[in-house]
Write a structure and sequence with these properties.
The chain is of the alpha/beta class. 39% of the residues lie in helices and 16% in strands. It folds into 2 domains: 212 residues, 3-Layer(aba) Sandwich (Rossmann fold); 258 residues, Ribokinase (UDP-N-acetylmuramoyl-L-alanine:D-glutamate ligase). The strands form 2 sheets. It has a 12-stranded mixed β-sheet with strand order 8-1-10-19-18-17-16-15-14-11-12-13, with helices on both faces.
Length: 490
């Protein structure tokens, strides 16, 4: 798992390292790593045009020293200085000494240099940047975004809050971010994820001084480790039995999608107990289908309750029945609406419970998620004593103890009807195997995103496409075959 850290945690670790290393050593490590990544991205560097966007802080120094390194290898390096009098003196001297040149921001020369660049390196603001870009920096970010160049951010894209991923106004549109020491949370959550591009982590020696991580990003290998294939001694009952309460006469598709996702993920058996039995039976003959109450449906290890089931008195009674068991439960969609109105159904519940709200459903529990999505998911999880999966471009899962996961997979094409029903079915399957609620949610979000990426390879998708691609998604995370898909795992 990849640990995700706050600015305060990283600052404290850097301070400890600085106290034990020669002056400038940390910046040289960062600049060397940055230049190495740029070399790899460009391939051949001789004669390539590289433009540095340089602010007044240490990120500007990192960019200048990296530029000097690249200039010595034959690159044509220009530094566009937001404030020439306050640029990092030693870094600027190194660049000029290596044959690079300095240009003032806002000049015709700077504009032309950016438009012709092969690579633009963003060193305008660092991890302490807050409140959006000034007009001159915003203009440089715009010019870089319109150019044909590779765009590489130093540590964090300028304009992105390194803790929350919030972007106020403009931000540098990086296709790659070279980050130092540890992955900042703002690179993988909120709008920041969309501006960071592929993340490259450079070791600068702060690892021993970082606290134990409480937020994580799963990799394919982490997910594969939680998806052990059945052994020769397994049978349909030993692999986990999932119960699904979803759908209605009005919304039978929710039942079909949720049940199909549960079947395609990994359980030995899926039992459906709801009011859309005919539709599920026709779509999935592999499921055990009944229109009886959940308590009469047979033995299960977990329940999924809510998608498309409605919010009438019968639905409320069924929700109370499911949450009154000592079994693991995924609470989704209509069940979340009912639970928000009667939170006593979940408070104090001992068995693993996973709530899966999108932003509007989350707000029904008393507050909007706001800009800090990790913090929001943690607060609701702690308040209710269960795990919360807050859906979004970068889905966040948190448990009541404060451990959080930020999903690394997915595609904007997932913003279509029914995909949440599929996610709920996947999560229920994983709960039935014995995973704790937060980890089951995180693994489910990862698989859901991978299936979405596969389904989107040919353009727009519908929710049923995810179910069809789930077996392949599971094979992919196990490395069969190994191929890069979409957003980088860092």
């Amino acid at each position: 798992m990849i640990g995700l850290f706050t600015v305060a945690e990283i600052r404290a670790a850097e301070t400890s390292v600085l106290a034990t290393t020669p002056e400038g050593a940390l910046m040289q490590r960062a600049a060397t790593g940055l230049a190495t990544v740029c070399l790899r991205l460009l391939g051949a560097v001789y004669g390539r045009r590289i433009v540095l966007l340089v602010g007044t802080g240490n990120n500007g120094g990192d960019a200048l020293f990296a530029g000097a390194y690249l200039a010595r290898r034959g690159a044509r390096v220009s530094a566009v200085l937001l404030d020439p009098d306050r640029a990092h003196a030693a870094g600027l001297t190194a660049l000029l000494g290596a044959g690079g040149r300095g240009l003032a921001a806002g000049t015709d020369g700077a504009t032309v240099a950016i438009s012709r660049a092969d690579l633009v390196l963003d060193g305008m603001l660092g991890i302490g940047g807050r409140g959006g870009l000034r007009a001159d920096a915003a203009e440089l970010a715009r010019l870089a975004g319109e150019a044909a160049a590779l765009t590489v951010a130093v540590d964090v894209p300028s304009g992105v809050d390194a803790d929350t991923g919030v972007v106020e106004g403009a931000a540098f549109p990086a296709t790659h971010t070279v980050t130092f020491g540890a992955v900042k949370r703002g690179l993988v959550v909120g709008e920041g994820r969309g501006y960071a591009g592929e993340i490259h982590l450079i070791d600068i020696g702060i690892d021993p001084y970082l606290p134990a991580a409480t937020a994580f990003r799963l990799t394919d290998a982490d997910v594969a480790a939680r998806l052990a294939p059945p052994s020769a001694s397994d049978d349909k009952y030993s692999q986990g039995v999932v119960g699904v309460v979803a759908g209605s006469v009005t919304y039978p598709g929710a039942a079909v999608l949720c049940t199909g996702a549960a079947l395609r993920t990994r359980p030995g058996l899926v039992r459906y107990a709801g009011t859309a039995a005919d539709g599920v039976r026709a779509a999935w003959p592999e499921a055990i289908v009944t229109d009886r109450r959940p308590r009469d449906a047979g033995r299960v290890q977990s329940w999924v309750v809510g998608p498309g089931m409605g919010t009438d008195d019968d639905a409320r009674s069924v929700l109370a029945e499911v949450l009154g068991t000592d079994l693991s439960v995924v609470v989704d969609a209509d069940a979340l609406t009912m639970l928000a109105a009667d939170q006593s159904l979940v408070r104090g519940r001992g068995a693993p419970t996973l709530l899966t709200p999108h932003d509007r459903e989350f707000a029904r529990f008393g507050a909007e998620p706001g800009p800090d999505r990790i913090g929001a998911a943690r607060r609701l999880a702690a308040d209710l004593g269960c795990a919360v999966l807050l859906k979004g471009e970068a889905t966040v899962v948190a448990d009541a103890g404060g451990t959080a996961f930020v999903n690394a997979t997915g595609t904007p094409w997932l913003a279509t009807a029914g995909t949440g029903d599929v996610l709920a079915g996947i999560a229920g399957s994983l709960l039935a195997t014995g995973l704790d609620a937060a980890l089951a949610g995180a693994v489910a979000a990862h698989l859901h995103g991978r299936a979405g990426q596969l389904a989107a390879e040919r353009g727009p998708l519908v929710a049923g496409d995810l179910i069809r691609r789930l077996p392949e998604a599971i094979s992919r995370v196990r490395g069969v075959p190994a191929r890069r898909l979409g957003h980088s795992e860092a």
